[in-house]
Design a protein that fits this description.
Blueprint: H1 10-15, H2 23-27, H3 31-38, H4 40-65
Helix pairs in contact: 3-4
């Protein structure tokens, strides 16, 4: 089996290059939306690409379970 680990903006947060979303946004698990709205030209295309491949990956995972 193969896997991967994604740290996302973790290094940017640690280095102080990018601020975190407010605590209430993080508690609602909406930091991704906060980041998309704070930097839409950079983040929205990235999130759109991820959303486009999600159905296929979901089907593949579902078939593996069957």
């Amino acid at each position: 089996q193969m896997g991967f680990a994604s740290i996302g903006a973790g290094l940017d947060f640690i280095a102080g290059m990018q601020p975190r979303a407010p605590l209430w946004v993080r508690r609602l698990a909406l930091e991704w939306l906060w980041r998309a709205l704070s930097s839409p030209r950079r983040m929205l295309p990235r999130y759109a690409r991820c959303a486009a491949i999600l159905p296929g990956l979901t089907l593949d995972a579902w078939r593996l379970r069957g």
